[in-house]
Amino acid sequence: MTDAARRPIVTIEDIREAAERIAGRVVRTPLIPFAAAEPGRPLWFKPESLQPTGAFKLRGALNAILRRLDDARAHGVVTHSSGNHARAVAWVARELGLRAVIVIPDAAPAVKVEAVRRLGSEVVIVPPDQRDTRAFELAAEHGYVMVPPYDDAAVVAGQGTVGLEIIADLPDVDAVLVPVSGGGLIGGVSTAVKALSPNTRVIGVEPELAGDAAESFRTGERVAWRTEQTYRTIADGLRTTSVGEIPWRQIQAYVDDIVTVTEDEIRDGVRRLALDARLVAEPSGAVTLASYLHRAGRLDVEGNVVAVVSGGNIAPDMLTEAVTSTTS
Amino acid sequence: MTDAARRPIVTIEDIREAAERIAGRVVRTPLIPFAAAEPGRPLWFKPESLQPTGAFKLRGALNAILRRLDDARAHGVVTHSSGNHARAVAWVARELGLRAVIVIPDAAPAVKVEAVRRLGSEVVIVPPDQRDTRAFELAAEHGYVMVPPYDDAAVVAGQGTVGLEIIADLPDVDAVLVPVSGGGLIGGVSTAVKALSPNTRVIGVEPELAGDAAESFRTGERVAWRTEQTYRTIADGLRTTSVGEIPWRQIQAYVDDIVTVTEDEIRDGVRRLALDARLVAEPSGAVTLASYLHRAGRLDVEGNVVAVVSGGNIAPDMLTEAVTSTTS
To answer: Which CATH class is domain B3-55+152-324?
Structure first.
């Protein structure tokens, strides 16, 4: 691979433009101080769980769709996802009055399919291995605007607005902790943070059971895990088997480290967020607090820390199980 | 009573000064849109549950203490409360390095006493009927600055900053729903809202089982209920037996209505906030959503609605019970 092929694609200017484009249509989430932070390491949460769809995914979907609004109005939009990205695209389509088709793998829980249908989107159910191909076919056939979940410059730029806001609210932040799955969020956040505050460390957090990005980061080669592996974690938003090509370039340029946490540590993160910070987080959103609480030595950060809480769409029984569990 | 004795005491200027005084020391909470709002009645939450002490009480306590900071530094501060106000005063004292004495009734749960002690405050346990007298005695004896939980102009002005922020973020709000107990919050919020947006309705919400303020509002005479009555509600932040004198004047001048909700409706509010808005609310904080969901006819509001979620300090078992309950 040539050097040019490794260079980052998304720039701070892209992220600034995204911020202007989506302003007023997403919640400008505040930083919430963690009252139970440890001495010498004050912690703030960036609660993307408070977006109307319950996750940061709204930012990227909005930016990608607004950039191509004329096409989207003329033909509609399409994506593939069973989770928070599907919900975000369906929400944006409803808000803007667009036709939306969401390709969902047949393994997806009925409750998630229903949530997308309730927002007015058309649902196409396919075998898991056909999810991207079917979405691309539909886009080609009908002219739909494709809104990929993470491997897309406009989507990465939209997610990067989280990083812009963190630096605006806490310019002297020393470390930012970000969940990693397909890499759209950390790809965008790290790009914004390093542009505005080069000495701030950006650290990705992944479940040990879905640790493909940590392995890729360690070895310097983008690896893929098998779904039988990544589907073991309760963090259902972090089961992507490999980071995307575009996010990977941003990660290689701007991310300082990627660490992993155990399932018990994730449950403890959900519990502490609910009881000590009054935030309902899904397991994927709680990995960052889990690393702060249980992997301090591995993180090796001092000073002001921000943990991105990426989403809050958790099943009621999983929330109650986590809340009633004892500290791990 | 002469007309002068009925006039409101706290002004919009007091609230503006409070906002300047406490800026940067409290979370500037955003308005969070409720994705499951009903057509024609968009709803936003004002999540004061996200303050570092888990409740709006921080605003009033901070304003009252900062106004008399020299005295507070020289002698310390004192208050009486077993709940969110105690925690707020203890927090402020720790942040500012002040001595604090908190008078707590002996009926208070050990966990709440511990929370205050952990923040470094001195705790004085007394029989419930001596809580205010003992605090005033201590203030007189030692020169402590007294920080009353609600019947104080500086405290009411501090709580009123919630109203300032609501109007700043949503100038065309048609109705604001506010929990009522001692009346400090609604007294301040209604004063700010009516000064800046006279046509916005301000409606108080109370548990039916602790409906003293609703009765007072209906009859025009400030009544007191007995603690055996008000202690029946699960909304432990709303068990005050009577609104305070100063809040009552603000309420009479600026509040449009006070409605009540049942215990099942309150539990449903807690559940929907957790699952549909990703906010952990205590029962006292969920009464406003309860009224929106279950008392639409009684509220009689159209257009943009804001529900203040006053706090999120809930026992784990009560949270799990509410989350797993079926819709009432």
So the answer is: alpha beta
Does residue A325 belong to the interface with chain B, where contact is any CB pair within 8 Å?
A: no
Closest CA to A33 of B236, B58, B98: B58
Pick the CATH number of A58-146 from 3.40.640.10, 3.40.50.920, 3.40.50.300, 3.40.50.1100: 3.40.50.1100
Confidence of residue B328 (pLDDT cuts 50, 70, 90): very low
Domain residues of chain A, as ranges? Answer: 3-55+152-324, 58-146
Q: What pLDDT was estimated at residue A113?
A: 87
pLDDT at residue B3 in the model: 62
3-state secondary structure at position A225: coil
List the catalytic residues of A. 57, 310
Q: What is the ipTM of this complex?
A: 0.93
Positions of B marked active-site: 57, 310
pLDDT of B114: 87
How far apart CA B41 and CA B301 sit, in angstroms, is: 8
A-chain CB neighbours of B277 within 8 Å are 50
**Chain B residues with CB inside 8 Å of A32's CB?**
27, 50, 52
Q: What is the pLDDT of residue A130?
A: 87
Produce one character per residue of B250-287: b if its CB has 16 or more CB atoms within 10 Å, e if not.
bbbbbbbbbbbbbbebbbbbbbbbbbebbbbbbbbbbb
CATH topology agreement for domains A3-55+152-324 and A58-146: yes
The pTM of this model reads 0.95
